[in-house]
Amino acid sequence: AMDAEEFRKQGHRLIDFIADYRDALARGQFPVLSRATPGFLAAALPPECPSAPEPFDAIMKDVEEHIIPGLTHWQSPDFFAFFPGNACYPAVLGDLLSAGFGVQGMCVHETRHRATRHARPLVLIRVPVCDLHEQRETQLCFHPYVGCG
Q: Is the dihedral of CA 75, 81, 85, 88 positive or negative?
């Protein structure tokens, strides 16, 4: 199990890894599209799940040797297909913060309504920027009968 000190240590390491990865993308170090062949990852896996957690070093080695080669590098400056919302460093930090809170905003009565109370004002202040004035309430997923709560 990972305690708080190990989490801090590996978290700093992971942030450095992400920054280095993004720098490498900017330098064109990775092809935009994966050149891996189908089944490459399955062939790299052991026949059975490990019986104990692996050290973080081993996990990061697997990421570098097996995960990164199989990725489409969405953040590459040479990729012009999609522009994901988590493309900038502040968004990555926001994802990390959200994961740290572990909020489950699913359609369970209590969590759905609490998550919506937090999300609604943040979305609505962006309505003028996105020119969504006409869709304000019913089409922005905040009507109580439209599925998101």
A: positive
